[in-house]
Write a sequence for this structure.
């Protein structure tokens, strides 16, 4: 079979792009030919439809008019603009489907998130016209996001009901957690298969090597600095301020830690900094990035926010060395994962594979689908409040307990190794690419 995986962007460091890479590899190993259809031309092998790109200005404008405020359109002209754009997108999809002789399409979030109605409508029209088979891969649904909660027009509300996802005989549906499976059945009367996010636990481990040996220096860090890595995108729901709170509390213990030996033999000195390194793309709302920088300064936490030195893979931009996300994991001492909402938990799986201790906020999907497997991590609990500035917080007691666990992970080499090795083994058991191949095989026949 020839299969096309579709998303607004591919070959980047966001969770959907990374998961598509895993599906692609699994499908190839099952004997299929796989291509990407996307809005960004990051590789010669990607079939590009520019109108669907993640940051297309016109598409973003239409989306803003759909869910925020009608400024340049009224409801009728907005509907006409969306339908016109959908027709353009439809024809481009049909051309690719026919030229490439594709047997299956795998839309990722196109029929789930509500991000781009022209893309959803255009793709669905192309599917109906070509009668092609479809396996939808739903990562997030529109009803899970406040952004899409108040459509500005009746047309938008009807489009969400009709196309996200559509009810079509040649479609099947894959979701990434049990809650989404329940929601899809209750809201749309559609059955789905849960295929959790996975990782290739057979891949070579991420290590410090000749290429990344200057990683700390590139980010202005010293050898003795302790890196707390936040590898997600910088968006409000990632709760990165909780990582700042945690490191701030750890800083209060620094005098007691002076002279102590870290798990790898480094000694904590007055010059040692506990650093929050944030390397993901900046996609926050309401000046989230600015609030984080101000908050870190207020809390006396050294935070380095720089997405420009990290990419999907190692490369050289003509002036500077670009590191892969995996290079960042190799140099991290602790992984911070304080998200207050996730559809699954890619960074958690990456932390398992990287054999690094983690700080985790137990968001609802984590509690339901991941926590029952008894992984080791420092917990930030499962209850938070949102402050007037829009940032979230958890109780001082929870932060203090997390810091106690973190100190043990930093100083107790035996305990640290025992926990990360057990985590790796459980990750391989429950979330490996072997399991992914088993789940995908019957979907493509």
């Amino acid at each position: 079979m020839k299969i096309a995986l579709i998303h607004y962007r591919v070959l980047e460091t966001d969770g959907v792009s990374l998961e598509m890479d895993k599906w692609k590899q699994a499908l190839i190993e099952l004997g299929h030919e796989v291509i990407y259809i996307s809005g960004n031309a990051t590789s010669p092998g990607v079939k590009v439809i520019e109108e669907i790109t993640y940051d297309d200005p016109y598409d973003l404008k239409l989306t803003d008019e759909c869910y925020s405020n009608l400024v340049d359109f009224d409801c009728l002209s907005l509907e006409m603009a969306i339908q016109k754009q959908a027709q353009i997108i439809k024809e481009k999809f049909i051309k690719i489907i026919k030229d490439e002789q594709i047997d299956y399409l795998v839309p990722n979030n196109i029929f789930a998130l509500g991000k781009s109605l022209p893309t959803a409508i255009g793709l669905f029209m192309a599917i109906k016209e070509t009668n092609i088979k479809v396996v939808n891969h739903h990562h997030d649904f529109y009803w899970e996001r406040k952004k899409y909660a108040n459509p500005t027009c009746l047309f938008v509300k009807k489009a969400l009901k009709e196309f996200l996802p559509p009810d079509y005989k040649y479609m099947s549906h894959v979701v990434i957690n049990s809650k989404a499976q329940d929601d899809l059945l209750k809201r749309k009367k559609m059955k789905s298969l849960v295929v959790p996010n996975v990782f290739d636990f057979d891949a070579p481990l991420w290590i410090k090597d000749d290429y990344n040996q200057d990683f700390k220096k590139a980010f202005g860090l010293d050898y003795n600095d302790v890196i707390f890595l936040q590898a997600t995108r910088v968006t409000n729901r990632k709760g990165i301020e909780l990582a700042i709170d945690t490191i701030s509390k750890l800083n209060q213990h620094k005098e007691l830690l002076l002279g102590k030996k870290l798990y790898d033999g480094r000694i904590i000195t007055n010059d040692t900094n506990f650093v929050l390194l944030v390397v993901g793309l900046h996609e926050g709302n309401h000046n989230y990035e600015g609030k984080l920088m101000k908050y870190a300064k207020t809390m006396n936490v050294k935070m380095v926010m720089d997405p420009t030195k990290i990419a999907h893979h190692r490369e050289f931009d003509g002036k500077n060395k670009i590191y892969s996300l995996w290079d960042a994991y190799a140099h991290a001492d602790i992984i911070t994962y304080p998200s207050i909402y996730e559809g699954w938990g890619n960074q958690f799986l990456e932390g398992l594979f990287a054999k690094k201790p983690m700080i985790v906020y137990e968001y609802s999907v984590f509690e339901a689908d991941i926590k029952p497997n008894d992984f080791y991590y420092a917990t930030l609990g499962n209850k938070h409040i949102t402050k007037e500035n829009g940032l979230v917080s958890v109780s001082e007691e929870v932060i203090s307990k997390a810091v106690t666990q973190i100190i043990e992970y930093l100083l107790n080499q035996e305990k640290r190794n025992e926990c990360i090795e057990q985590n790796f083994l459980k990750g391989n058991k429950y979330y490996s690419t072997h399991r992914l191949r088993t789940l995908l095989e019957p979907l493509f026949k």
